[in-house]
Design goal:
This protein is an alpha/beta fold. The protein contains six helices and eight strands, in the order βαβααββββααββα. The strands form two sheets. It has a four-stranded mixed β-sheet with strand order 1-3-4-2, sandwiched between helices. A four-stranded mixed β-sheet has the order 5-6-7-8. It is globular, with a radius of gyration of 17 Å. The model has no long low-confidence stretch (mean pLDDT 94).
């Protein structure tokens, strides 16, 4: 039995042409949000916005690439050091993969790491002021709740590690276990896929 039963694991280098090809038109974990788990006009609008962007991208009309901030650049540069630090501190062997595509529809995630115990890793490399807040509250930051639980929903994992790294501070590590919110995310993602299919059938793009 697969350790990640709800997805297809795609082994490629992240940010490579192959990685972008597999992500094309797919809702990814960084785009997940509470709108997936709730109803109402505000959440329906968010669902339409997300599905429209994915559909346009799949048809060859992607939105302009978002501005790459200093925080984003720092995250890309420091991620390998964060994974190495986590692996050494926890004595875990961490494998890197490109993309995890759900078997349930047009959504997926790019895990920063996976392990042979069926758990995954989400790494962030925040500015120091943010890291201090994470250490003080000692819980999964709200801004990453949907991404971490969404990664479990995509892959079928029972737990996911949230890791916050700064080269000048202790590593912040938090194990997040699958719960009711994870199942709500999975149900919302499946509903999103149905909506996406309906939108795709409705819209004809030359």
């Amino acid at each position: 039995m697969s350790l990640f039963p709800d997805c297809i694991l795609i082994h490629c280098e992240q940010r490579s042409p192959e990685w972008f090809r597999h992500r094309n038109g797919v809702l990814t974990a960084s785009q997940f949000g509470d709108w997936l788990t709730k109803s109402g006009k505000v959440y329906e609008k968010a669902r339409l916005t997300a599905a429209s962007k994915c559909l346009a991208e799949a048809r060859g009309f992607p939105d302009p690439s978002p501005f790459e901030s200093d925080d984003m650049r720092r995250g890309v540069e420091l991620e390998p050091y964060a994974i190495e630090s986590f692996s050494q501190q926890m004595d875990f062997a961490v494998d890197t993969i490109g993309f995890a595509k759900s078997i349930y529809g047009a959504f997926g995630c790019s895990p920063d790491g996976i392990m042979d115990n069926g758990e995954g890793v989400e790494v962030k490399c925040p500015r120091m002021s943010k890291l201090i807040q994470y250490i003080k509250t000692d819980e999964l930051p709200d801004e990453y709740k949907s991404q971490v639980h969404g990664s479990m929903a995509v892959t079928g994992a029972k737990a996911w590690w949230f890791v916050a790294y700064h080269p000048s501070a202790p590593l912040f590590v938090k194990l997040v276990e699958r719960d009711e919110y994870t199942e709500d995310m999975l149900a919302g993602l499946k509903a999103y896929h149905e909506f996406y299919q309906e939108l795709s059938e409705l819209i004809s793009i030359q």
